[in-house]
Amino acid sequence: MLYQSGVIPSQLDEEDYFQLLEIQKAKPREDRPMNTADAHKALSNMFGGG
Questions:
Q1: Is residue 50 a contact partner of residue 44, using CB atoms and an 8 Å limit?
Q2: How far apart are CA 49 and CA 42, in angstroms?
Q3: Confidence of residue 2 (pLDDT cuts 50, 70, 90)
Q4: How many CB atoms sit inside 10 A of residue 7's CB?
């Protein structure tokens, strides 16, 4: 998996393992919670406001 994304083994030894685990379990942008400003903007656009 890491090899396919362009990470070679010598680079992997220099990386923070726990940070890589956090990155791998991150949710896609559309599945992340929205902050209130973005939610308000999305609702305004949905109901024709601006």
A1: yes
A2: 9
A3: low
A4: 13
